[in-house]
């Protein structure tokens, strides 16, 4: 904070001469739209994990953002090893993503068994506290096992020639992020819709006790839920880390909070809702930055959340719950 | 029985405090970020303090008293800094080397001011800390932010012929202070225009919208106030989105971690930082001692921290006392040879004879521009 006299000079003079090309500048609009799409895809990937877990066991898994961070770290380690062995960058990206997904799926599975399963009958607050503990544990584990510093993440996504004419708007990493996210989300939707396990998940989400009575192995369903959610978060971690080129133990926190916001916006418990919520949040942040000010990026995101909670508490896709008597 | 045990506790406490008063050590507090994101700014100061203390203790201490270091980590977080300050004072620190970040320093200073504890920061550059006159016991061995902003603006307009400058910051005390002074100097100069003045959110997933906005404003130069994590993200996204601008920043970015993280994208970035004093004999000796003692090269603010510690030791020595007024007087009147040159402090607490230079990343390292 500077002294008041400086501040007043600053405020008076701060009339930026932007929008030379008018407010309805479609190119600028497109740039912001595509930037928001990239960011929104990542939010959506993480938000799915929140919403699936909530849908099935009504737990907000606050350690989910940390799985995203772990995914980025695993990706970094694999990329480092493969880089030394001389693999080409796209191959490294694919292998790193696959290994990160497998590793984090294991983490998600174990996390559920250690931190949440023993508390299944224990009301809603205990698992929530356990989740916060898990989140702190994982962050500190990375500080101890890796570093508290920022680490460079190799640029694994090469510049595609066919995107070069529009690289200033939508580069190859944006392309890869959006396409990969879309593919994985489509895959997940198909899994939920058409497989037996998907059916069991939907049944458990609707009414766990009833599903159990009808022979659904709810422990298995919950494990699969954690595995799927963690896999998507890990994928998000690897993609965004190679997009921005750095990782750190703390990246999961803000990303996790934003993704959680996206999940609530979309209607927590609903998978299409999480996807829509993620895109909605990413796009609105991008437009808020572009047309208003990035000073208010977070203010905007969370105001949106508050407005939604007041006027449409069940979110975009969520159904208002009828209290069962 | 209850009363008796109360008496025993009281007796124990009295004993404890009396040993503290009778101790034949000079306790010097060292506070800053020693863990967390910004540990790379704080740890070199701890090392500098240890080296000076070892050196002085080997020569018999200050007036026969050994230096004892009290090290407190506050992660550059204001709320933890106040705790650290309270802890140091209650542990009996005579003077404090620190804190590291401006925000944390500002939070801790009212506590030191009240307790009349002299503090010297090697790195807190917020102008208000000395210029406001609120903290008479505060000194620093680094020039303040407006000095850096002035240098940055003069460089942008004079050397790079900047006409349209986008000023960004990270909304923190340090970064916003730099940005506001830069904006003020640009507008006062009248030779260039501020086309954008905005804060970015530290830790955001990406900065593509801000980068597009920079392009939209047609800026030829970006001035950024803040630290290296945000700077490396912005720099690499500027490159990625093919926005060609000069990037000028502050000494929060003039850190080797920035080059390590941003890699090739760091090339050509300008950042101001303390003058290169590596030619001084005392400086070379201190750096060599660091390598010998810790096995690594000294990090950010090491010189200023070493100098601050030398100034503290010298002041206590010359004052022949641990009385704050006498120490402050010695700091203001006695010249002391340090790793940043021969310095003493002015009435406001700023070191006379220290300043900034502009550096540029060339071939993967910062090179001072003459």
Descriptive tags:
heterodimer; A: 325 residues; mainly alpha; ABC transporter involved in vitamin B12 uptake, BtuC; two-stranded antiparallel ribbon; disordered N terminus; B: 370 residues; alpha/beta; Rossmann fold; 2 domains; seven-stranded mixed β-sheet; 15 strands; 20% strand; elongated
Distance between the termini of chain A: 56 Å
CATH class of chain A: Mainly Alpha
How many H/I helices of chain A?
Answer: 12
CATH hierarchy, class of the largest domain in chain B: Alpha Beta
| Residue runs with pLDDT of under 50 for 5 or more positions of chain B | 15-22
**Percent of sequence in beta strands of chain A:** under 5%
Give a quick precis of the structure.
Chain A is mostly helical and 325 residues long. Chain A has helices at 4-13, 26-57, 64-85, 89-116, 125-145, 172-194, 196-206, 208-213, 218-244, 251-266, 271-292, 297-311, and strands at residues 151-152, 246-247.
What does this structure look like?
- The complex is a heterodimer of chains A (about 325) and B (about 375).
- Chain A has 12 helices and 2 strands, in the order αααααβααααβααα.
- Chain A has about 325 residues and is mainly α.
- Chain A has a single domain, classed as Orthogonal Bundle (ABC transporter involved in vitamin B12 uptake, BtuC), CATH 1.10.3470.
- In chain A, helix 6 crosses helix 7 (about 195-205) and helix 11 packs across helix 12 (about 295-310).
- Chain B has helices at about 1-20, 40-60, 80-90, 100-115, 130, 145-160, 175-190, 210-215, 230-240, 255-260, 280-295, 300-320, 325-335; strands at about 25-30, 65-75, 95, 120, 140, 165-170, 195-200, 220-225, 245-250, 270-275, 335-340, 340-345, 350, 355-360, 365-370.
- Residues about 15-20 of chain B have low confidence and may be disordered.
């Amino acid at each position: 904070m500077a002294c008041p006299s400086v501040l007043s000079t600053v405020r008076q003079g701060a009339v930026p001469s932007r929008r030379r090309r008018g407010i309805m500048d479609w190119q600028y609009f497109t740039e912001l739209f595509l930037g928001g799409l990239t960011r929104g895809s990542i939010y959506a990937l993480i938000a799915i994990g929140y919403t699936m877990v909530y849908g099935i066991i009504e737990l907000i898994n606050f350690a989910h953002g940390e799985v995203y961070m772990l995914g980025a770290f695993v990706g970094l380690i694999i990329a480092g090893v493969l880089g030394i062995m001389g693999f080409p960058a796209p191959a490294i990206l694919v292998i790193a993503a696959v290994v990160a997904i497998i590793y984090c799926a294991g983490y998600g599975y174990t996390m559920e068994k250690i931190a949440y399963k023993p508390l299944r009958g224990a009301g809603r607050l205990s698992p929530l506290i356990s989740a916060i503990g898990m989140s702190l544990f994982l962050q500190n584990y990375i500080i101890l096992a890796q570093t508290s510093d920022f680490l460079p993440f190799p640029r694994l996504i090469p510049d595609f020639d066919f995107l070069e004419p529009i690289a200033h708007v939508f580069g190859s990493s944006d392309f890869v992020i959006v396409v990969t996210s879309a593919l994985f989300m489509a895959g997940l939707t198909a899994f939920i819709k058409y497989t037996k396990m998907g059916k069991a998940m939907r049944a458990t989400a609707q009414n766990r006790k009833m599903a159990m009575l009808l022979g659904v192995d709810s422990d298995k369903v919950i494990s699969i839920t954690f595995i799927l959610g963690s896999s998507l978060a890990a994928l998000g971690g690897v993609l965004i880390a190679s997009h921005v080129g750095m990782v750190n133990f703390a990246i999961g926190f803000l990303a996790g909070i934003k993704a959680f916001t996206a999940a609530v916006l979309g209607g927590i418990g609903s998978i299409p809702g999480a996807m829509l919520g993620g895109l909605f949040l990413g796009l609105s942040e991008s437009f808020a930055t572009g047309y208003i000010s990035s000073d208010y990026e977070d203010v905007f995101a969370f105001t949106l959340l508050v407005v939604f909670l007041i006027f449409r508490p069940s979110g975009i896709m969520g159904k208002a719950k009828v209290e069962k008597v | 029985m209850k009363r008796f045990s109360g008496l025993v506790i009281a007796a124990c406490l009295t004993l404890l405090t009396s040993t503290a008063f009778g101790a034949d050590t000079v306790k010097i507090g060292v506070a800053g970020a020693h863990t967390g994101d910004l540990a790379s700014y704080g740890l070199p100061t701890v090392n500098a303090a240890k080296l000076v203390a070892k050196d002085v203790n080997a020569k018999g201490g200050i007036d026969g008293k050994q230096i004892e270091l009290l090290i407190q980590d506050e992660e550059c977080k204001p709320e933890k800094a106040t705790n650290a300050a309270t802890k140091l004072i209650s542990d009996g620190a005579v003077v404090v080397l620190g804190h590291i970040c401006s925000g944390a320093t500002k939070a801790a200073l009212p506590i030191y001011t009240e307790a009349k504890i002299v503090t010297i920061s090697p790195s807190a550059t917020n102008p208000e800390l000395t210029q406001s006159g609120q903290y008479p016991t505060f000194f620093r061995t680094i020039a303040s932010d407006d000095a850096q902003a002035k240098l940055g603006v003069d460089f942008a307009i004079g050397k790079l012929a900047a006409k349209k400058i986008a000023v960004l910051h990270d909304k923190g005390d340090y970064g916003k202070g730099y940005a506001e002074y830069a904006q003020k100097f640009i507008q006062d100069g009248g030779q260039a225009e501020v086309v954008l003045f905005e804060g970015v959110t530290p830790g955001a997933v990406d900065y593509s919208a801000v980068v597009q906005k920079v392009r939209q404003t047609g800026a030829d130069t970006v001035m950024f106030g803040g630290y290296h994590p945000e700077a490396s993200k912005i720099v690499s996204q500027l490159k990625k989105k093919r926005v060609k601008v000069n990037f000028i920043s502050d000494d929060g970015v003039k850190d080797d971690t920035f080059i390590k993280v941003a890699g090739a994208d760091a090339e050509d970035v300008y950042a101001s930082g303390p003058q290169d004093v590596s030619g001084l004999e005392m400086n070379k000796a201190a750096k060599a001692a660091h390598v010998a003692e810790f096995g690594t090269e000294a990090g950010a603010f090491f010189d200023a921290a070493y100098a601050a510690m030398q100034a503290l030791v010298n002041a206590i020595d010359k004052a022949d006392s641990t009385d704050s007024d006498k120490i402050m007087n010695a700091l203001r009147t006695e010249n002391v040879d340090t790793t940043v040159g021969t310095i003493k402090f002015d009435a406001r607490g700023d070191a006379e004879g220290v300043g900034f230079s502009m550096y540029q990343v060339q071939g993967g390292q910062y090179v001072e521009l003459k």
